[in-house]
Amino acid sequence: MFSDNLKALRKKKGFTQEELAVRINVVRQTVSKWEKGLSVPDADMLLRICEVLEVSAEELLGGETKTEEKRDEVVWQLARINEQLAVRNRRARRIWRVVGIVLISIVVIIAVLFLLNMHTPRSGAERVIREQDAGDMEYETEGIALKEAGFAKLGGRVMSITEYPE
Asked: What's the fold here for domain 2-119?
């Protein structure tokens, strides 16, 4: 209702959004938000708009208020709507902030895990132990290296060959 009236009255006066914005000391995007119904002006701004467009608040708001009490009620309702929009905008900003923090945390955790994984030695068949003993013999697998060193692996446990059941 207000948004449609504002747009119609602005065009009737021959003002662009930019021209109206300059006359009431706001940015053009603010006028655009009012005309799209995304926000509403506060009571003081409403009075400035009425002065520039040379209309009454009743005409701008689209109501047929005749008494001072009804005008006060309209101004009060406008202030309440403005506060509700402000609360909703704060809530949305808070939600996006939390989402951003969670996403950044996930990226940091993944990066740390990736870096830790790069520096962790591989085990089992992926790891090849190359050791040389006194006879310059090179061992290519973990099992041979363990056996030559006097150890054996049984069920994932490394034992001394003396403990190893044959």
From this structure: 434 Repressor (Amino-terminal Domain) (1.10.260)
